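Hi all, posting the design record for the shared folder.

TITLE: backbone redesign
STEP: 1 of 1
STRUCTURE INPUT:
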């Protein structure tokens, strides 16, 4: 009986910890993922890559799933920019890091007022 109670506490604690506590998407964006080099430190875009803070998506529908997939695969043929986006920004990212940086991108999108 006591053992069950202890297990329940451990499980509850584990479930309460957000995944982002282990990998910071912001750190990936500004660090090993190279994202900031093209998309800009504030992700507002530049000559090499589009803004990720607006609600305009060029290659995807903007759902989390499509962002994860795009980061994984890169953009071999950009629509409006001169050079391709390499898969994972040219870095080697774990699944967890890809999902964390996708969540970070989602957190930047400015929702339309209202
Ligand atoms: C070498 C420059 C470069 C790097 C590094 C880079 N990107 Fe990109 N990114 C691009 C280009 C170019 C596009 C496509 C723009 C186009 O189609 O005109 C793009 C598109 C995207 C899109 C889709 C935007 C849209 O509107 O379709 C997302 C999301 C994105 N990048 C996220 C990231 C993330 C996250 C990282 C880091 C892991 C990253 N990028 C690293 C150049 C880069």
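Okay, here is what came back for every position:
SEQUENCE:
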């Amino acid at each position: 009986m006591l053992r069950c109670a202890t297990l329940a506490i451990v499980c509850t604690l584990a479930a309460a910890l957000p995944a982002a506590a282990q990998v910071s998407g912001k750190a990936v964006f500004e660090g090993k993922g190279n994202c900031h080099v093209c998309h800009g430190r504030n992700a507002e875009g530049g000559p090499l890559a589009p803004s990720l803070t607006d609600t305009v998506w060029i290659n995807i529908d903007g759902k989390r799933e499509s962002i994860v997939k795009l980061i994984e695969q890169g953009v071999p043929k950009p629509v409006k920019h001169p050079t391709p986006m390499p898969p994972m920004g040219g870095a080697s990212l774990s699944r967890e890091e890809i999902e964390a940086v996708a969540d970070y991108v989602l957190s930047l999108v400015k929702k339309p007022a209202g």
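COMMENT: The helical segments are 2-16, 25-30, 35-39, 64-73, 95-108.
Let me know if anyone wants the other runs.
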